[in-house]
Design brief:
Length: about 150
């Protein structure tokens, strides 16, 4: 009798787990689960802007060093920012990217080979996420859907 109860208990637990797993899979597939298409387990976890050069609007050539990733997609008002949302700066980033990332970087002015580079500032640097070729990084005020954000 005890062996039959144990077998029945095992069957019920197994069915419960299977039903729960199937329900969770359906939620994810239907996009009703909180970890739907906007969720990404590895987005923006790796800094990629160190060593990238950038020309400022003032005509200064700078480069980024010692970048630290700010984990997770860049969001403004709860919406993941995409390059096409960036107003006048969207041309700077890889079109077709699904999201934008941020990094905290030291920004050095490129003084040429004669003098050592000088620290220009410490800034939040932006880049398109999920891009392998032609990575572009930039800093400064960004316009997202017509609003300036930093």
């Amino acid at each position: 009798m005890a062996q039959m109860s144990l077998c029945l208990l095992f069957s019920l637990v197994t069915m419960g787990v299977a039903v729960r797993s199937e329900s969770e899979s359906e939620l994810i597939a239907n996009g009703t689960e909180s970890h739907s298409a906007d969720w990404c387990w590895n987005c923006c976890k790796t800094p990629k802007c160190s060593g990238i050069k950038y020309m400022t609007s003032g005509g200064r050539q700078v480069f980024f060093q010692n970048c630290q990733a700010i984990e997770g997609k860049w969001e403004v008002e709860g919406t993941a920012v995409k390059p096409e949302m960036l107003g006048s700066m969207k041309w700077k980033f890889n079109s077709g990217a699904d999201y934008m990332c941020r990094e905290d970087c030291a920004v050095f002015e490129d003084t040429g080979a004669i003098r050592p580079p000088k620290l220009f500032s410490h800034q939040t640097v932006y880049r398109a996420g999920g891009v392998a070729d032609g990575l572009q990084c930039a800093f400064g005020l960004m316009e997202v859907n017509g609003k300036l954000v930093s």
